[in-house]
């Protein structure tokens, strides 16, 4: 088990380092932050002053080494826009993003999985078809279309909810719904498939033949076995929630990390972008690591395989 | 008026709070508050106009927060009007003396004096170690650093662009200051009202921990003070009760950053916002059709242009550039993309030049003449080599469709112009090959053609500093414009500069005047200025009908 965890941690670290390196190189190859931040009308000597001050004329390998060295000391650099520590700017925005992503994740789990299981158990019926159609609509409509549609209905037409901003809890309703709907659709579809596959397995037939009640078959045999693929997809969804927040936060003017990322990329605010990407990569890696560990808990066969190795 | 749940709740809340408040607070409460959806509040996260050199910054910072000794007449002819100074006079070609308005209070309660003005134009605040053109800085003893605050690297350069030759400001007495230039300059008064004399509280600066902390909550004399500023999110200004110009009509003004056009429009339609700025022309109909809403449009002191690069092999020949200027049907663009809500200017000239008698009457944008363009290309021996056109994704309103139309028009006369989409200004201005033509805009800030012709295309303008274009005779004439006090000679110089930059050796291709469109609740009766700035002083707030 220790070897298993160690190898996963090593891979996680490597992934984070790769993301950092990639972001570092790409950001510096795609435009001069000095010119972007100072605009087109500023004299060239001003631009040069800025480049000198931020070390942008140093060879890229030297910039990279300095960056890594600072990172090792917990220094994520300063924002070029307002000269605050990049980590402070990011940390200020995390609560707002969590205010959307956590309720959205809870809604996805609360509605997506039960809906999928229900549809699988009612396979071929009208209820099954209805769930499938709703799920397909949910995950095929892009979030920016869904968001605008919800605003049009609930804010513009009905006047029941705010269209954007973050000044009250009501302002969170539409963005949370927008973020949830796609995920509910995805989870419903995967849960249904996983359950249908498990329900057709020989051990389910054996359990039924032995006279185990239908509800016990589902609870004790079907659900635990269907959980592994569902956990896999939930792991991906947790990791991608922050990425999904970018679009939703933009549509609803929600002051979270997604908005900060957009603004920082546009302005080539290198330290802030790198900080956010690092955080997103870390969330991805941790959620995948958690999924890997959950596999072992959910499926004893995987534990045994790991031990044998 | 349409009432929805939030309107009713707001009304109930306002009523309930009014019942329990003391009389003097009820009087304050009766002032309305407004919410304005904007694409961006400020670009660089400070509320210091010297650092925030942008159109969006003008909207958030003028005239509600910052004020100068002379003010721009935002709702009138855009010329100078008394502000924190009540009168001004020329002492000589290099010196202007101003009498300060007495009894002006900063947001912190201090009275504004000459010391604050001297500080506001000091090396400590603006110029750093830079020296004025044509002489040494005088009055250096007035500007010794007392706090060691580190101003942003860009600021001294920006300050010198606005005041290239300002040697210093002298406090003659408590209510009198003198602006001393190192060289003669007929545009000193213009620079004063074009944001060049804004005043900040010296004490507030000294008490701030850092420049960044100060610049997020500057203490000024404006009708509204900074109540809350959340970078990239919102800015709330609150009424300054001791404002010298009388009681501000609004309790708060909140600029909310809503980057998506559709979200701004939806917010306006749903009643979330009272104003929605930066609307593209294609959204005007949606807003105008909604009950109780209207769109205010106005042309602004900004012309859209394309900048030519002389180091492109084909564009070295002025005939090719001239052909490009004659291939464009500007009226068709204004009609197709702007619904005729803006106009084709008389070259790189603005109406404000008329107030200083520097407008060249009879001068026009290059004639649309495709046949002439083809003829010029033939004379130039142009063989269809590609000319790259660097374009940003709608940094300017309608930029991409405008770029596509231009390219088609150029291609119609035989030019092979290829659009190269770029992501940011760094890529647009990169001095790598190949580069041919790019988009830009030229702003006029004072009633003199020095802005933008000299400022943007002169020897120290971005175009020449970026090695895109240069012309020896043009540069000599820039010197005349900057230092001569002979009006006739200057007018002759600008006429010749227009001929060079738009006909003989084109530096740019003039397109059309820019315009802004603001959606708003009709019953507010507010009027938009011909600028990005939004005036919420009492003189432009008649109140709800």
UniProtKB/TrEMBL annotation, chain A:
Query: Transmembrane segments in this chain: where?
Result: 12-31, 100-121, 133-160, 172-190, 226-251, 271-295
Q: Where in the cell is it found?
A: Cell membrane
Q: Where is the ABC transmembrane type-1 domain?
A: 94-295
Q: Which residues form a coiled coil?
A: none
Q: PROSITE patterns, per this entry?
A: ABC_TM1
Name the predominant localization. membrane
Write down the InterPro entries for this protein, in alphabetical order. Answer: BPD_transp_1_N (IPR045621), MetI-like (IPR000515), MetI-like_sf (IPR035906)
What membrane topology is annotated for this entry?
Answer: Multi-pass membrane protein
Pfam families the UniProt entry points to: BPD_transp_1, BPD_transp_1_N
Task: Alphabetically list the UniProt keywords.
Answer: Cell membrane, Membrane, Transmembrane, Transmembrane helix, Transport
Family that this chain belongs to: Belongs to the binding-protein-dependent transport system permease family.
**Identification of the protein by name:** Glutathione transport system permease protein GsiC
Species lineage: Bacteria, Pseudomonadati, Pseudomonadota, Alphaproteobacteria, Rhodobacterales
What gene is this protein a product of? Answer: gsiC_2
